[in-house]
Design brief:
tRNA (guanine-N(1)-)-methyltransferase; 10 strands; 2 domains; cytoplasm; 9 helices; Trp Operon Repressor, Chain A; EC 2.1.1.228; transferase; alpha/beta; tRNA_m1G_MeTrfase_TrmD; Alpha/beta knot; three-stranded mixed β-sheet
């Protein structure tokens, strides 16, 4: 997969792209990550990429010419590859989710557009962008950090990126549920012990315990997710039991 990020501040992403999972994925040749300073496409000697909004108002608006020129240059260089998704990081966009990450992980080429200032000329949205994404209902200085979040989430789904191929499958939200609790050595720490079930060596029972714990944690922390996840008859019975415990004891402990 190739990923290009249009930004006025490429240095914000350089460290992110060189380290940890993203850095290793590039070393393996699984993904290639590039930043493009769209100021280089301004077409004027001052490198101007923004202007005041028509109709008045505060702030500055990103001009369409530099962003269109940068994306079109990338498309020309890509040759006959499949048309990339051009993603605008924007508070007005669709809220990013694991489902969206799985969808984007199937693409060969992604282009992210990261803005600053007051906003974008609307013609960028209407005639260039294929997706608008937001990582939450809050405002950040620019789109670089949200883009890094999306790229990280997508890249870990690519085959060969993670050392343990089951990690991405069992992560929170990948199954529609929050992930079950994890433990490692020592067996006892400051009087707190690892659950006996995890020490039993009975894999079927351990998997059943983990599923129950995932259901319990989701019911406690994100019950809204249960409306979307596909549940088995056993899951429903487990949830009924957990809800009864919650109603009786005021908690699930």
């Amino acid at each position: 997969m190739r990923v290009d990020v249009l930004t006025l501040f490429p240095e914000m992403l350089d460290g992110v792209f060189r380290t940890s999972i993203l850095g290793k994925a590039q070393e393996k040749g699984i993904i290639s990550l590039h930043t493009v300073n769209f100021r280089d496409y301004s077409g004027n000697k001052h490198g101007t990429v923004d202007d005041t909004p028509y109709g008045g108002g505060g702030g500055m608006v990103l001009k369409p010419e530099p962003i269109f020129a940068a994306v079109e240059d990338l498309l020309e260089k890509a040759g006959n590859q499949a048309k990339p998704r051009v993603i605008l990081m924007c508070p007005q966009g669709e809220t990013f989710s694991q489902k969206k990450a799985e969808e984007l992980a199937k693409e060969e080429h992604l282009i992210f557009v990261c803005g600053h200032y007051e906003g974008y000329d609307e013609r960028i949205r209407e005639h260039l962008i294929t997706d608008e994404l937001s990582i939450g209902d809050y405002v950040l200085t620019g789109g670089e950090l949200p883009a890094a979040v999306v790229i990280d989430a997508v890249s870990r789904l690519l085959p060969g990126v993670l050392g343990n191929e089951t990690s991405a499958v069992t992560d929170s939200f990948s199954t529609g549920l929050l992930e079950y609790p994890h433990y490692t050595r020592p067996v006892e720490f400051r009087g707190w012990k690892v659950p006996d079930m995890l020490l039993s060596g009975h894999h079927a029972n351990i998997e059943a315990w983990r599923r129950e714990q995932a259901l319990k944690r989701t019911l406690e922390r994100r019950p809204d997710l249960l409306d979307e996840v596909e549940l088995t008859d056993r899951d429903r019975k487990t949830l009924e039991k957990l809800r009864r415990l919650k109603d009786t004891d005021g908690g699930l402990e």
